[in-house]
Amino acid sequence: MLPRLRRLFKHSLQLAPLFLFFILASRYWTASQGPMPSSPSPKDVASSLLADKGYEVESVSLLQSLWAGYGQICRISATDASDESHSFILKLITPPPTRAGDEGHTRKILSYQVEQYFYSHLAPQLPASIHVAKCLASINQHHSDGTSTTAMILNDLKKEFPVAGEKRGALSPVQVGAALDWLASFHGFWWPRAEEFDGDKLVLPPLEEVKEDGQDASKKTVWLNGGYTYLATRQKEYSNLVDDDSEWTQPLTQPVSGQTQSISELVAAFLSPSVSGTGPIGDYQTLIHGDVKSENLFTIQSGEEVAFYDFQYTGLGLGVCDLAKLFTCSVPLGMLVESEYVDDVLTMQEGEKKLLQRYQEKVKIVSGKEYEWDMLVQHWEIALVDWLRFQASWGFWGNTEWLEARVRSILGDEQWRSTLVTMVGK
């Protein structure tokens, strides 16, 4: 009996490749019966968009492929009517078909539409001193098979800002100052204008938005909540943190004494922008970049001026939420603390304070509004706790020793905790 079973098993292994061939052939034959949607080539898209502007495409070079094969970023060389050569950037988004309930997929699809709105409608409003790319042309097409084509032609920032931001933590002190000034100017410019955004046209958290409008946010503007790490869109990661046994599980996920919510939930409630402009941050909410890091900026040779790009997650929020990521991921540790050794529990050091004061002063000049130091610090510390919550649930990177030490100090301050509870309860 046993030898017989062995022979059967052996024959089945020999036939397996043949079965696999028939299965694959059948799938190919079935799929080939109907027309397959094909993604437009970067050159075709660029040629179509630039022709209306009087340019002829000469060459296309791939700069990078987007996350999970969702598209490409290419440098376009084109000539005008007088044969003068020009350089442009094409951002072409051709994602796979809609996957219902996939929050990450939905977030990406919506983010590209938000970015297109920013470049088409908001970037032209910025003063020349706040450097961003200019959008020459764009398309946003949704197809019956569930796919879409989104594309933008932007001017090439590298000509004026030739130095690309380096990897995490590698910005020079001069570049840090320029990035901080840019953010303060951006936040300061939009602060008095934030109330002008139509609440009905703000993009909701991904899974809420898809229930309301599907994945077509072409009639929407920017995210209600800028960034991509806020708690409402990171419930899966938060659940993992709840079930984890890390240092941060108990202090961040367990209900605060006398409350039903955890510190993470209270912080999220505090930081949540309001359509009506009310709530704890109503008087201070502005438009934030949403993904501040050295990889998303260029500088001039001296590093004294900077241009940011990648506005997929721009939306309402507190400006200090942008700073939390910048300080952790792109500011050299030596600009935050005096010693290479970071204490386990750390209050605000002089370097950190100077950077925040520089930001405060610039915001005041640009906005014409007062950002009181005590209020700025309160907002800043809450933003740090929120940013740590995301890192603890996703993975740590950057100046993590500094971030963890600062949050240990913040959470150990009973006055801070009491104030947070009071502010959220109002």
UniProtKB/TrEMBL annotation:
It comes from Epicoccum nigrum (Soil fungus). Keywords: Signal. PANTHER family: AMINOGLYCOSIDE PHOSPHOTRANSFERASE DOMAIN-CONTAINING PROTEIN, UNCHARACTERIZED NUCLEAR HORMONE RECEPTOR-RELATED. Residues 1-33 form the signal peptide. InterPro entries: EcKL, Kinase-like_dom_sf, Oxido-Kinase-like_Enzymes. The lineage of its organism: Eukaryota, Fungi, Dikarya, Ascomycota, Pezizomycotina. It comes from the Eukaryota. This is Aminoglycoside phosphotransferase domain-containing protein. Pfam families: EcKL.
